[in-house]
Amino acid sequence: MSSFDFNNLFVLDLANNHQGSVEHGLKIIKECGKMVRKHNIRAAIKFQFRQYDTFIHPEHVEGSDNIHIPRFLSTQLKLEEWRVLFDAVKDEKMLTMCTPFDNESVPIISEMGFDIIKVASCSAKDWPLLEEISQAMLPIIASTGGLAIGDIDDIVSFFDHRGNELALMHCVSIYPIPTKDFHLNHIDTLKDRYQNHTIGWSTHENQDEIAPVQIAMAKGAQMFERHVGYETDDIKLNLYSSTPQQLDIWFKAYRYAEALCGLNTKDVEKPTTDIEKKSLEGLQRGVFAKKGLKEGSLLDISDVYFAMPFVPGQISSESWIDGGVVINKSFKTNEPIFPDSITITKNVKNRALKKSIHEFKAMLNEASIVLNSEFGVEFSHHYGAENFRETGALIIDCINREYCKKLILVLPGQKHPSHFHKRKEETFQVLSGIFESVIDGHHRVMSPGETALVQPGVWHEFWSKDGCIVEEVSTTHYNDDSVYNDKKINDLERSERKTAVKNWGRFELVKSD
């Protein structure tokens, strides 16, 4: 796991916009610092290093027809001048970052103490340089402009195998980028394919455009890069470099998109405000008596009607239960019906099970786990179906031959009590969420991919704070094979602690044999 936090990082690329002048470079750094503080941004100023005595072929030092070389040579800075700019970045409380374009620059970056090292898109397949960068053991951000997905696979594997901390930038190496070539949907691809790496967006668009950073942020990019500079009467910037004023607008646009997107709802459920609740209540329909109703009678849908305005506290149409409802008092025509005026007598215990089926299906969908049509589903509810959300689990039986495969789904806050198996040996592998267990007295907190062996006769229990899905691979399962630490559970008939789902789609529940 990475110890450097790449998330919410803005990379401000100085490139050659210092124009070979320390004074001008300092001006850019100070102006960027002002904007960073104004918007409370976590930022890094990025330098570009090339050792020109070896980087440029001797025959191209003068009169080269390569469009880049004259620009590089005309904006050279000496190492001591770079140190002045480096110290200025530190003084502005920003991180330091550098892109080496040759092997000789990497040791200098390490010696100077940069916080982050960058792989430019043009160097992403420069294996001698990548090898040198990997040995620096600095956090690495790699741009992916012009790379096929297989090339990115190679880079990720290369640095992962060497134990480097790596983040990736979606990048389009066109200056500036035409609208049709942004391909911001590629951020989704990178996030799905490289889930253990932070994904960002390196921009080269016209700097007056703000929509790309907002869209990239909404798609889940966690890093953002832009070229920066400062204009004077004599110095003008290219279309893909930001002035301080453009940087100000860019940061503001990002913060606005951040506010619009809100919380990461995968980690935290979307909050509902009191204002929203009140607004919805104003449009809800309540349950009213269609005619005079006598105390003790069964309440049928033909006895009521649904209308607005909703009376605070009454039963709403969304809470209506058809069948098995007895009224505890008499009602007059048009009188609202309140929860304390009824008793639910039908399938009270199974309501908790039926309600949870929706949640279990959603958990499988979120984890991208697809089931075929041949499987069994069983609720384990060791202290009664009505207490299922606190104690139990959902078991999906996939295969049970000489070998056995099950999926175990645990709701947030749910616990499966301590037990052992007389014959069965099993291995748990976490597929989704965080799985906690005590196996033979040892507490483990397990993440997706981790496994745990449970041998016959070994006590084990498990639970999940936020919900999880675990695959169980075992020897053959037998219905009489479990022994619980709580003797009360052992005294129950299997049908008292297990409920099978006869039809997953129609919520048909039957007692397990």
From TrEMBL:
Give every Cupin type-2 domain span: 409-464
Which molecular-function annotations from GO does this UniProt entry contain?
N-acylneuraminate-9-phosphate synthase activity
Which InterPro entries has this protein been placed in?
Answer: Aldolase_TIM, Cupin_2, PseI-like, PseI/NeuA/B-like_N, RmlC-like_jellyroll, RmlC_Cupin_sf
List residues of the PseI/NeuA/B-like domain.
44-262
One GO term under biological process is: carbohydrate biosynthetic process
Gene3D superfamilies reported in the protein's UniProt record: Aldolase class I (3.20.20.70), Antifreeze-like/N-acetylneuraminic acid synthase C-terminal domain (3.90.1210.10), Jelly Rolls (2.60.120.10)
PANTHER family per record:
N-ACETYLNEURAMINATE SYNTHASE, SIALIC ACID SYNTHASE
Q: What is this protein called?
A: Sialic acid synthase
Q: What is the lineage of its organism?
A: Bacteria, Pseudomonadati, Pseudomonadota, Gammaproteobacteria, Candidatus Pseudothioglobaceae
